[in-house]
Amino acid sequence: MLNVGIVGLPNVGKSTLFTALTKKQVDCANFPFCTIEPNVGTVSVPDERIAKLAAISGTTKLIPTAIEFVDIAGLVKGAHKGEGLGNKFLANIRETDMIVHVVRAFPDPNVVHVDGSIDPKRDVEVIELELAMADLSTVEKMLSTVTGKMKAGKNADLVAQASALEKLQIALLKGELARGVEFTDDEAMFMKTMSLLTAKPILYVVNVDEADATRADWVSPLGPTRMAIPISVKIEAEIAGLSAEDAKMFLADIGLKESGLDRVIRECYKLLNLITYFTTGVQETRAWTILVGTKAPQAAAVIHTDFEKNFIRAEVISYMDFIACNGEAGARDTGKLRIEGKEYTMQDGDVCHFRVNV
């Protein structure tokens, strides 16, 4: 399951966003460090395709994919040295697949700011520097270990490791993020074994007021290099208490086509290079998440690990063809059902039936 950590300075709207996203009530009191232990909520990924497939297949059991949000304690300057709840924060965030960084851009004299003023770019740089310094400590310890091993004798692996760590050390000392460092193929392989905070994809959610949330020409205050979307956490909190139909009407009334949850999940999928394929039949219709570029046997293994080694073939229908042909029988009759082998690369929206040796 995709695991996303929601981070930010205290009082920027993290816990309120978490509540809106998961409809799981957490303590959102107006003071720093209100969130101490991380709150975790699992949310179904909204995808209108699954209901349409189920309607054609005649099943009432729908199983969407899910995303897990983790609301992590607010971070402050000096966290990498243990200030505030820094150590707890850093331990929690290492376990996530990616980060949603909530940044405050809304003015409200009734909600205190830990630094006394609203400055989104400054706030982002505070947290990025703390993450970089925490990673620097990890990198320097590892570099010391690798250097020690090299004294006993060099090999290609150790040389690649040392090179990667030295590049990281230089970047992190400047407060830069690990994901911006260029590596050779061997260095990149080594990087995959590390769990650096600044190597994780980051989606910046700028918590704006209602007017900015509905502006088509909104410009991010964080610059062009950070993937940022504007969301009014206040609006999302209101939507969370409404029925699906009322929420749809509310969004239309204020000029929004979709909720913040939909936007956050879509961008998370994009940053992590994820796509969805489906299985459907009379028993259930289900969505499955895989990486872009996944081959058919590996996609089958998401259903059951034995399916990969016992894979024979995949019967595949594109989502649009499945709908247009009114199901598998129609797709088969019109030649839209394809037989794919082990080298087939899965596409978003594929409707699949895997044949395996039992």
What can be said about this structure in brief?
The chain has helices at 14-22, 48-57, 86-93, 120-151, 156-173, 185-191, 210-213, 233-240, 244-253, 260-271, 296-303, 306-309, 319-324, 328-333; strands at residues 2-7, 39-44, 62-63, 66-71, 98-104, 202-207, 228-231, 274-280, 285-291, 311-317, 338-340, 351-356.
Please explain how this structure is put together.
α4 (120-151) runs antiparallel to α5. The protein has helices at residues 14-22, 48-57, 86-93, 120-151, 156-173, 185-191, 210-213, 233-240, 244-253, 260-271, 296-303, 306-309, 319-324, 328-333, and strands spanning 2-7, 39-44, 62-63, 66-71, 98-104, 202-207, 228-231, 274-280, 285-291, 311-317, 338-340, 351-356. It is flat, with a radius of gyration of 23 Å. The protein is an alpha/beta fold and 358 residues long.
Helix and strand topology:
Blueprint: E1 2-7, H1 14-22, E2 39-44, H2 48-57, E3 62-63, E4 66-71, H3 86-93, E5 98-104, H4 120-151, H5 156-173, H6 185-191, E6 202-207, H7 210-213, E7 228-231, H8 233-240, H9 244-253, H10 260-271, E8 274-280, E9 285-291, H11 296-303, H12 306-309, E10 311-317, H13 319-324, H14 328-333, E11 338-340, E12 351-356
Parallel strand pairs: 1-4, 1-5, 3-9, 5-6, 6-7
Antiparallel strand pairs: 2-4, 8-9, 10-11, 10-12
Helix pairs in contact: 1-8, 4-5, 5-6
